[in-house]
Amino acid sequence: MIRPAAVIRALAVVCAVLLGPGGATPALWAQTATPAASEEDQGPPDYAAWERTARKAERQTQDRQTPDDALTTMRGYLVEWRATFQAAQNVNAARIATLRTQIDALGPPPADGKLETEAIALRRTELNDQLAQLQTPVIAADEAFRRADGLIKEIDRQLRERQADELLKVTPMPINPANWGIAVKALRDISVEIWDEVQTRWDRPEVRADFRAYLPLVLILFIIGLGLIWRGWWLGERFGNALNNLTPKHWHPVWGIFASLGQVALPVIGFVLIGVPIQFTGVLGPIGSHLAVSLAGLGVVIFGWAWLGQRIFPKAETEGMLLNLSPEKRAEGRFYSLVLGALTGFQTLFTVMSVDKGIPVEARAILSFPSLVLFSIILLRIGRLLRDHVRSRGAADALPSFRDRLIGLFGQAAVLIAVTGPILAALGYGAAASALVYPAVFSLGLLGMLFVLLDVVEGVYALIVRRGDRPGDALVPTLIGFVLCLASLPLFALIWGARVSDLSELWTTFLAGFSIGETQISPRGFLTFAVIFAIGYMMTRLLQGALGSSVLPKTKMDQGGRNAVVAGVGYIGIFLSALSAINAAGINLAGLAIVAGALSVGIGFGLQNIVSNFVSGIILLIERPVSEGDWIEVGGVQGVVKTISVRSTRIQTFDRTDVIVPNTDLIAGRVTNWTRYNLTGRLIVPVAVAYGADTRKVERVLMEIAEAEPLAVLNPPPTVLLMGFTPDAQLFEIRMILRDVNFQLSVRSDINHRILQRFGEEGIGLSLGMAAQAQLKPAGNGADEG
Question: What is the β-pairing status of strands 719-725 and 514-516?
Fold first, then answer.
């Protein structure tokens, strides 16, 4: 007969297990004991307690038999003490700085036996006594900090040496049949212990009564659990497809990933329904109960790997697919992922049980050899799949992407480790082989999770910006992917054997920064510098915008002057922003004098052209010999000045091409400015007249044409000159001053039209001989480009 209370209790425990660590089965969920944080002590450190802790730490480091756990625990205490002393070093910092400025205000002590007034000497002595009294706790804290830091480093060194010795430890070769008896004996001992536990508990009448009471419920849950394990993956896939059909298409890349998690959840629930209710029968002992509650974790590992394999090796070809493989190879990859999950789950259970039950290291090395070989085989096959992807992409693309190069690197490393690991294990170096094969497998899994997260990021970004395609080349997803890769580096380090204490020490060193002279460079100071400089830069841009759009247009300054003022305000604002940021970050520029001197030498030799162009740009903005909109000629290039920056000036030629001219050429070279101070300019139009024409008549006709030009200045008046002769023609020139030289091309064209018309009416012939044509090159200011 089923007891209702027992049923309710069993269902409550199952629900608690499914809901999380708050349930009644702590064996399933890892619990970390964290000591309660004590209130911060506002007084000075307890140096007596510290002395006892330091001496105990010194004894432990000197004793080579001290267990690793004891050293790790002591290291945690030392880290707390070090943080306390580091905080104590800043006590009275403001008052100490004030006293030093007061002492500096009194001037240096007199030298060469000279005496100073009694009041100043008394005041100097009083201030020095106060300074010494305030510095005493700071000096004590600094000494204790250095002692704690040294002990921490010594413990880290010993733990690393022990870890290296453990990796090089030689165990009995597992391929030698003579050593198999150790493994058989260990398995027999565990089996006998489990059977004895069950037999002992079954002999109790109350256990048999509970077993009969819970048996119907256990059988029902067992059948449901088996069904979920067998068909849960398929049900989760159908459920995810149904949800995808109910959502818009552009949601599928993101929603499909989360919906597919049901393929993991349902089988894991099946494992829980099998493992947890068995405990209520009371038949299982400690080992059996531990195995029963571990079934949920086993399901997570197995189907988690299977889910990851489905994301990396999808059944259907989709846009943005990670690996360019054929359907057959993708199916092979999914199978390998499932096998890796099963191997990982059972190997984890075996490792936990062997450590808990004290199985000798030699027996563990022999028993784990078959699974290590299977891991290596799967690792070898997956590495070849990754290399096949790189080769297929290399055939299509001339230059592989960074992602493909990374995948190829992981593939080559996987193949190499898969070959090396079993050889080392067969020779007796089981620890070294395990330190290679297992981290390589987990690294591949972490790499796959990174790519899945990147797909989620790209999908979310596509939803936000409402893009239908995958924004693989967008900046924001790329930056987020870069941050994720950086954040995964500590996980890779932990996988490959790094200790949490090593990473925390690196993080502490990073936060502390480094020193250059008396200047401390730290991330906090750098962040302060960046924030202050960004605020100053934005204020400078706002001021520039207000001046350029609201204030300066209401003045009588020309456009070039307004541009110069706006640019000058920008340079001054950036300079003041940098100074303010440096001051706020606490950077002592005096301490960087040596670095600044080295940089000045580098600037003098390697950056002299850049500095010269920068100074020239400042001169151009101040003196303004050239302004934006001017028509200039420099180095054989003519055009209109478009922009003047700190390094160069952009000139747009008359054929609409941009020429970048270094500012040094505008200051040190010869520059012709046609429109800087006035727009007037001379125009010379050459005319070749055939022999036989009356030269005075030609002169009169050309003069009439010149005087009829509306843009020609009459004071000084235009002139017509007979410049010479060639075998074919008489060479004349019309010279005139135009009111606006920018129209000289249209004026030249108009005058040529009139010459043809008037010469036709007057019966004057033009010469077309080669010698005459050679002499008719454009003259004047040279602005003959179209």
Answer: unpaired
Beta-carbon count within 10 A of 423 CB: 11
* Cα–Cα dist 352/253, whole Å: 38
Quick one: 112 exposed, middle or buried, by C-beta within 10 A (0-12, 13-18, 19+)? Answer: exposed
Burial 650-661 (b: 16+ CB within 10 A, else e): bbeeeeeeebeb
**CA pair distance 554, 546, nearest whole angstrom:** 12
User: In Å, what is the CA distance from 237 to each residue of 302, 328, 665, 770?
Assistant: 16, 20, 70, 88
**pLDDT per residue as tens digits for the range 257-286:** 777 888 888 888 888 888 777 777 777 777
- Whole-angstrom CA distances from 64 to 52, 261, 431, 489, 502 are 20, 49, 21, 32, 20
Sheet holding 631-634, edge to edge: 658-662, 648-652, 637-644, 631-634, 671-673
If DSSP codes are grouped into helix, strand and coil, which group holds residue 487? Answer: helix
Integer angstrom CA distances of residue 533 from 87, 355, 519, 522, 599: 28, 56, 19, 16, 22
Signed CA dihedral, 542, 546, 552, 558: sign only:
positive
Question: For the whole prediction, is pTM greater than 0.90?
Answer: no
Backbone angles phi, psi at 499, to 5 degrees: -90, 155
Q: What is the pLDDT of residues 450-492, one digit of tens each?
A: 888 888 888 788 777 766 555 556 778 888 888 888 889 999 9
